[in-house]
Amino acid sequence: MNLSPTGLLHLLVVYIVWSSTYLAFRVGVGPGGGWEPFLMGAARFIPAALILLGYAYARRQRLWLSREEFATLCFTGLMMWVGGNGLILIAAQYAPSNYQALMIAASPIWANAFEALLDRKRPAPLLIYGLLIGLVGIGVLSVPKLAQPTPTSLLSFFLLLVSPICWSAGSVITQRRPFVLDAVVVSGYQQLFGGIGFLLIAPLLGEHGSSPSLAGWGALVYLIAAGSLLAYTSYILAVRLLPLSIVMTYAYVNPVLTAFLGWLLLGEQLTGWTLAGAALVLIGVAGVFQSRAKR
């Protein structure tokens, strides 16, 4: 299989770091965090974007955008961050970190569906089997939560169903409209547009001010440094260097790592369902990689 080693290294960063961001979401907007969801999003993405663009300016990277680049980066930034990440932040008020990651694991299904639709081409059977096995694994992982529904769990379910659709659509567009821009610049502008979107929408949702605790501030700093500056830039580079079906496997690996991190750090329950689902998830990821190898 001819896959870029650099791309795989960036994908590994995405695997590990983004698994931990679900815990930071839960700490920041959950009980005791003190952040309101969209204000936290604005407080995360605008500073992160300014740091990235400042770094790009210091390296004399092109920052000026053509009209087409502006429109594409604005649209994908809003789709991926406000639609994709913003809905997770709202759901994180009610759902544990492992359940957030479980639902977002549908991203590869939506990404491959969008690609097949745009290409008017049916995905390879092994790829379909790999994705479906991974999806079954996610279902197994989520059985304990779905077996005990509550009003807030229904809201969380809906938000976490729509979120990966928005993220996948933005990812497909980002890959299919390659920019003559450095990855840091692309990452910076997408997060800047997303952060502005958060800031404008927050008052419409009744968010007028947050009073974050020390833990809430710690979660924000971690999301800026690890989630935005490091992992998202690695994600953009991985999307450039690897097939999208390979990159999107992060959404299958993240729930497994998040479940274990949630158990280790936040005391979230780890059961036999978790272990069985994790095994199926890894088998599904292996099927996706094997499909690419045969192609």
Description:
The chain is mostly helical and about 300 residues long. The chain contains twelve helices and no strands. The chain has one domain. The longest helix is centred in the last third of the chain and has 28 residues. The mean pLDDT is about 85.
| Multimerization state | single chain
The topology string of helices and strands comes to HHHHHHHHHHHH
Number of separate helices: 12
Q: Whole-number radius of gyration?
A: 18 Å
User: Which spans have pLDDT < 50 for at least 5 consecutive residues?
Assistant: none
**How much of the sequence is in beta strands?**
under 5%
Termini gap? 9 Å
Q: How many structurally independent domains?
A: 1
What form results from the Cα inertia axes?
Answer: globular
Transmembrane segments: 7-25, 37-58, 70-92, 98-114, 126-147, 153-173, 180-202, 214-232, 244-266, 272-289
Subcellular location: Membrane
Membrane topology: Multi-pass membrane protein
InterPro entries: AA-Vitamin_Transporters (IPR050638), EamA_dom (IPR000620), EmrE-like (IPR037185)
